[in-house]
Write a structure and sequence with these properties.
494 residues, amp nucleosidase, domain 1, 2 domains, five-stranded mixed beta sheet, 20% strand
Length: 494
């Protein structure tokens, strides 16, 4: 198909026109057809251009789009926090990687069709697909840097457009599109593609390996324990786990299979204990600091996980705490400021009962303590997160006073960001920290003390996180995806 505009010829692929669907699987099949046709067209044209067959006009393909139009204010089952729109009108979203998101799309579209009794329309959108994302899945193709090809890339192909790659929908600052449609999903196709590319870069694993239950840690010590657990599960034919994926997409399916040691680790190495339906557990070592925590969660959020939990280390602030004690966060003091531009500090970040109960029960099982005895090793309270690892070296009057006024029981650098981004992205979140030092009482994290702590506590702490995730996996989605995370004007998709 050839179109004309003032800038010259635009060549696009031939794709079937809009079609309405009352069956989710068929709708996703059409999304796949449109997407595969668009990416195949761009890859072929790009390959020819790199080989010297430079187009004389612009080569352009578009993302597929889903639209839903309703005309009634009639209420649906209000117990469900997703799967419906809030009122009459048209709602739309662009879609990428329908192969990766097939189960998610079929679930969300099926709910929409059932709840509203109207078809969904699948068509080609008016959002151009950047060539970088079209070739991302082809190991033999890469987009050269500016000046690295015999043609000016932006004169021929579309490139990522940061002016339309944003978080306006999840931040509640979106505006209706040119046709007056409200957003149907929390992320646009280009925003998803951007994060999928970032995830592959930061974690050195393909996004397809990520599971629906994500553990974050700030120490590599946890990785060895996670691999040990994964191997034990793979050796058990009744565990339900099917594979373990390490850095560089190294995959094993048996407990005694070798794993190559990478030459170097990526910035945020990720490890995936997989189940066939994606309900396994992913562990990501985000390293230290709120900026890393924001970066990781900004991108993992597009995969729409069912829960993420921080299992890291913290400074205990109470004299009654001991090294190795646990802290279950029920509130967050956001002293890190990293999310203030997206989520103002006055927005409360509530504790989610489903996550809190799963974590507390996991601690009870792992420590063999219950009831009042559980208070010996675990405190529930406010966790403060800061952006300065050496906060102890500053004037203590200000920070210590605020910590006391907030009733904080622990301090770290990541938990508040992970919880706040979970709230912002509507991903159920929680925090269980382990006390590794008590700076206000003179127990600093020094080499000898730290080594003994890591040896005795890491395995138990990780197992608590795993137990909590395995408990949450058994929970119905309409329970874990709480209405507390949804506003009065929400997207229909989770």
């Amino acid at each position: 198909m050839q179109l004309r505009d003032l800038s010259g010829t635009i060549t696009s692929p031939d794709i079937p026109g809009p079609q309405d669907f009352t069956e989710a699987r068929a709708a996703v099949d059409r999304l796949c057809l449109i997407y595969d046709t668009a990416t195949g067209f761009l890859r072929d044209a790009f390959t020819r251009a790199l080989a010297g067959e430079i187009p004389t006009g612009r080569i352009r393909a578009f993302y597929p789009e889903i639209r839903l139009t309703t005309s009634t204010y009639a209420k649906i089952d209000s117990r469900l926090s997703f799967g419906h729109v809030s009122g009459p009108g048209t709602h739309a979203t662009t879609i990428t990687r329908p192969d990766l998101f097939r189960a998610y799309l079929e679930q969300q579209l099926g709910l929409l069709i059932d709840n509203h009794g109207v078809p969904v329309r699948v068509r080609v959108s008016d959002t151009p697909m950047p060539v970088h994302f079209a070739v991302a899945g082809d190991a033999d193709l890469s987009v050269p840097r500016e000046g690295g090809a015999e043609f000016t890339l932006r004169d021929v192909f579309d490139v990522p457009d940061l002016s339309t790659t944003n978080d306006h929908i999840v931040n509640g600052t979106w505006k209706h599109d040119a046709e007056g449609a409200a957003p149907l999903a929390p992320f646009t196709a280009q925003r998803v593609d951007y994060s999928l590319a970032r995830l592959a870069h930061y974690t050195a694993t393909d996004p397809c390996h990520f599971q629906n239950y994500v553990l974050f840690t700030n120490y590599q010590f946890y990785v060895a324990e996670f691999e040990t657990y994964a191997r034990r599960m793979l050796a058990d034919p009744d565990s339900g786990y099917s594979a373990f994926v390490s850095t560089g997409n190294a995959l094993i399916t048996s407990g005694d299979a070798p794993l190559p040691v990478p030459d170097r680790l990526p910035q945020m190495p990720a490890y995936h204990l997989k189940r066939a339906d994606g309900s396994g557990i992913t562990l990501v070592n985000i390293g230290v600091g709120p900026s890393n925590a924001k970066t990781a969660t900004d991108h993992i959020a597009v995969l729409r996980p069912h829960a993420w939990i921080m299992v890291g280390h913290c400074a205990g602030l109470r004299n009654s705490q001991s090294l190795g004690d646990f802290v279950l966060a029920h509130a967050y003091l956001r002293e890190d400021r990293v999310l203030d531009a997206d989520l103002p500090a006055w927005v409360p970040i509530p504790a989610l009962a489903e996550i809190q109960i799963a974590l507390q029960e996991a601690v009870a099982v792992e420590t063999q303590l219950d009831g009042f005895d559980l208070k010996r090793v675990m405190r529930t309270g406010t966790v403060a997160s800061v952006d300065n690892r050496n906060w102890e070296l500053r004037d203590q009057s200000g920070p210590v006073q605020r910590l006391s006024q907030s009733r904080a029981v622990a301090l770290d650098m990541e938990s508040a960001t992970i919880a706040a981004n979970g709230f912002r992205f509507r991903v159920p979140y929680g925090t269980l920290l382990c006390v590794s030092d008590k700076p206000l009482q003179g127990e600093l994290k020094l080499p000898g003390m730290a080594s003994e702590f890591y040896k005795s506590q890491v395995a138990r702490h990780l197992m608590i996180g795993i137990r909590a995730m395995e408990s949450l996996r058994k929970m119905p989605l309409d329970r874990i995806h709480s209405r507390k995370l949804r506003s009065f004007e929400e997207t229909a998709f989770l």
